[in-house]
Amino acid sequence: MADPHPTERTRTNTGPGRLLIAVYLLFAVAATSRAGLQIATRFDAAPTAYLLSAFAAAVYIVAAVGLGRAGRTGRQVALACCTVELAGVLGVGVFSLARPALFPDETVWSGFGSGYGYVPLVLPVLGLFWLWRTRRDSDLAPARPAEVVPDQSFGPPAT
């Protein structure tokens, strides 16, 4: 059964995890501001790029929330976000360099995040490492079915 109160070792929101959450929140604000301004003022110039920046912002927000929660659901959300983020920054990075005509304007993930000092490339790797580092031993074991306890509410009392 899942531990409702994770130990300090398994909490993603303690120690270096707090710094990781802060960086995710900083990138959430930066990407949201950038995408919001671009979409509001010049959406017709590069809709795909601006929508990708908005998507990146949403991923950063949800990843920060997932890392901020200490439970199993938060870990799963953070794992999904970091995986999507890494795939996104690698995919958009490759396409933005190989086919620059597809991206008339930069996204947060263009050039593997070069416009942001390559932090968008490093951030999901750090997030995945932190999730791996703070995993519980029970996360590694296969799920076992719950033990069935016979119902003793009817019949003679148990002795």
The string of secondary-structure elements, in order, is: HHHHH
Radius of gyration: 21 Å
> What proportion of the residues is helical, as a percent range?
55-70%
| Number of extended strands | 0
Weakly predicted, low-confidence segments: none
Q: What best-fitting shape do the alpha-carbon axes yield? A: elongated
N-to-C CA distance: 27 Å
Find the structural class using helix and strand composition.
mainly alpha
For the biggest sheet, the summary is: none
Beta-strand proportion: under 5%
* Count of DSSP H/I helices: 5
Mean pLDDT: 84
Task: Briefly characterize the structure.
The protein is an all-alpha fold and 159 residues long. It has helices spanning 16-42, 47-68, 72-98, 119-133, 137-140.
Task: Indicate the topology.
Layout: H1 16-42, H2 47-68, H3 72-98, H4 119-133, H5 137-140
